[in-house]
């Protein structure tokens, strides 16, 4: 292959002064921890590399999930010339200069160039437009990385020519695996220091990192240096207090997969149920500041809106759904206030569990009684045979009724007259209860005039 006009990713010298996160950057797909939905055996990005068929893509995911690493490895393992941009530092002049070099290489040897653009969402329209002709002509393979939704931040013509792949936050267990590698590796990691990190401390750091491997490694490196300076040749043991010294903040005791996780989400739910916005804000803060996934909190709010507010405030579910959308749109840390806003609204909303108890009664009947078919008169009759069998016979079209309500049973015979939904006297359900009473009276009137 013709010598690249651009330095290969691995050409950057690695020294003892190089940050730990950079020293431990994986060199192959097999070394990457996480993102198996993309790089696992038989999955799309691995197949691109193995078949040497790179196409322009956008990698969308939170910080520290491997976007830059993945781009470098894809170029390296396909022996493709590579150039990297930072949208924060590069302008239109630099883009045009590199595009000209890439085009010259392509004309000379038909070698494409992988152009990696970090934080591509920070490029303006004119800068993004500058890539278009080279993507279209195949001169470059564009790999953009972004923490923001590409639908809003990448121009449509460019987005239509790039496939978007979503990288997930690393799970605590995956962060722990990376940290253990760092502690064991004597060449690139901290193995030569021989520092011991108890499992509970390692887990605390993995939770604190909140899916960002770079944060975890940076904190580990700093905390380790503090311990080494303090110990003076003694056995090196990293403690929670060492992590707190490195972070200059308290490490919160919170296990996202353990008992404390369920205790605190229960405390949030019950605080909102008890109309206590101050407690609800506190428990949300405990979870978010300890690294809880905000989408998990938002999902629980959606459940609460239907279970504990229900139709007492018909806006509650929309408020909760808006919180979910806010989390997805802006992410951390901006979404914290949206969650706090929803928690306060749900706390002060009128409460009713009528929907919850009503549906629970339905589930009980479905599971414990014979599941009869619908009454004949409310079945569809699309064929003559079905009409002959009585399907639809006796059906009363409510819109043709004077009161817009027919005295017609819609439950199976064995459950005739069963009432599942009993609206409370809270909020909007007070009016719903009145409406149901009016409907009942209309049915009685309709029946008496037959």
Account of the protein in words:
The chain is of the alpha/beta class. It folds into four domains: 9-166, P-loop containing nucleotide triphosphate hydrolases (Rossmann fold, 3-Layer(aba) Sandwich), CATH 3.40.50.300; 172-247, Helicase, Ruva Protein, domain 3; 259-348, Up-down Bundle (Zinc Finger, Delta Prime, domain 3); 369-448, post-AAA+ oligomerization domain-like. 51% of the residues lie in helices and 7% in strands. It contains 21 helices and seven strands. It has a five-stranded parallel beta sheet, sandwiched between helices. The chain has a two-stranded parallel ribbon with strand order 6-7. Helix 5 links the parallel strand 2 and strand 3 (113-118). Helix 11 packs across helix 12 (213-231) and helix 12 packs across helix 13. It is extended.
Determine the CATH topology of the largest domain.
Answer: Rossmann fold
Placed side by side, the strands forming the largest sheet appear as 2-3-4-1-5
How many alpha or pi helices? 21
Structural class category: alpha/beta
What is the CATH top level name of the largest domain?
A: Alpha Beta
Number of domains: 4
Proportion of strand residues: 5-15%
Task: Please specify the SSE layout and strand pairing.
Elements: H1 20-23, H2 36-39, H3 44-50, E1 57-60, H4 67-77, E2 82-86, H5 92-109, E3 113-118, H6 125-129, H7 132-137, E4 140-146, H8 150-153, H9 156-159, E5 163-166, H10 172-184, E6 195-196, H11 199-209, H12 213-231, E7 236-237, H13 240-247, H14 259-273, H15 277-289, H16 294-309, H17 316-330, H18 335-348, H19 354-368, H20 384-388, H21 428-448
Parallel strand pairs: 1-4, 1-5, 2-3, 3-4, 6-7
Helix pairs in contact: 10-11, 10-12, 11-12, 12-13, 14-15, 14-16, 15-18, 16-17, 16-18, 17-18
């Amino acid at each position: 292959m013709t010598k690249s006009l651009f330095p290969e990713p691995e050409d950057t010298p690695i020294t003892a002064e190089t940050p730990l996160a950079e020293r431990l950057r994986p060199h192959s797909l097999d070394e990457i921890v996480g993102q198996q939905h993309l790089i696992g055996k038989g999955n799309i990005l691995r197949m691109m590399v193995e078949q040497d068929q790179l196409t322009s893509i956008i990698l969308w995911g939170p910080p520290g999930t491997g976007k830059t690493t993945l781009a470098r490895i894809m170029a390296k393992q396909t022996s493709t010339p590579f150039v990297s941009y930072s949208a924060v530092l590069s302008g239109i002049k630099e883009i045009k200069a590199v595009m000209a070099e890439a085009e010259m290489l392509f004309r000379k040897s038909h070698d494409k160039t992988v152009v990696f653009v970090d934080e591509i969402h920070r490029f303006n329209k004119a800068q993004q437009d500058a890539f278009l002709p080279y993507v279209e002509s195949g001169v470059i393979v564009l790999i953009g990385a972004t923490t923001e939704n590409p639908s809003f931040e990448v121009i449509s013509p460019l987005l239509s020519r790039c496939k978007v792949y979503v990288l997930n936050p690393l799970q605590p267990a995956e962060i722990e695996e990376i940290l253990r590698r760092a502690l064991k590796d004597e060449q690139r990691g901290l193995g030569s220091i021989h520092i011991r990190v108890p499992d509970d401390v390692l887990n605390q750091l993995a939770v604190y990192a909140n899916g960002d491997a770079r944060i975890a490694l940076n904190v580990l490196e700093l905390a380790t240096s503090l311990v080494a300076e303090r110990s003076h040749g003694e056995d090196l043991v990293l403690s929670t207090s060492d992590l707190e010294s490195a972070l200059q903040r308290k490490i919160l005791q919170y296990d996202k997969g353990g008992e404390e996780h369920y205790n605190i989400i229960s405390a949030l739910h019950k605080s909102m149920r008890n109309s206590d916005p101050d407690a609800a804000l506190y428990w949300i803060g405990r979870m978010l500041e300890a690294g809880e996934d905000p989408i998990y909190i938002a999902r629980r709010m959606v459940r609460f809106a239907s279970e504990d507010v229900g139709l007492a405030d018909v806006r509650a579910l929309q408020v909760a759904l808006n919180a979910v959308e806010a989390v997805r749109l802006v992410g951390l840390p901006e979404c914290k206030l949206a969650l706090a806003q929803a928690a306060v609204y749900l706390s002060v909303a009128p409460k009713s569990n009528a929907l919850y108890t009503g549906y629970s009664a339905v589930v009980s009947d479905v599971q414990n009684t014979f599941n009869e078919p619908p009454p004949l008169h409310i079945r569809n009759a699309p064929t003559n045979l079905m009409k002959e069998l009585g399907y639809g016979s006796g059906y009363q079209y409510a819109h043709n009724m004077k009161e817009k309500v027919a005295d017609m049973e819609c439950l199976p015979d064995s459950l005739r007259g069963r009432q599942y939904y009993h609206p409370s006297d809270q909020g909007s359900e007070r009016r719903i209860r009145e409406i149901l009473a009016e409907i009942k009276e209309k049915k009685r009137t309709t029946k008496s005039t037959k």
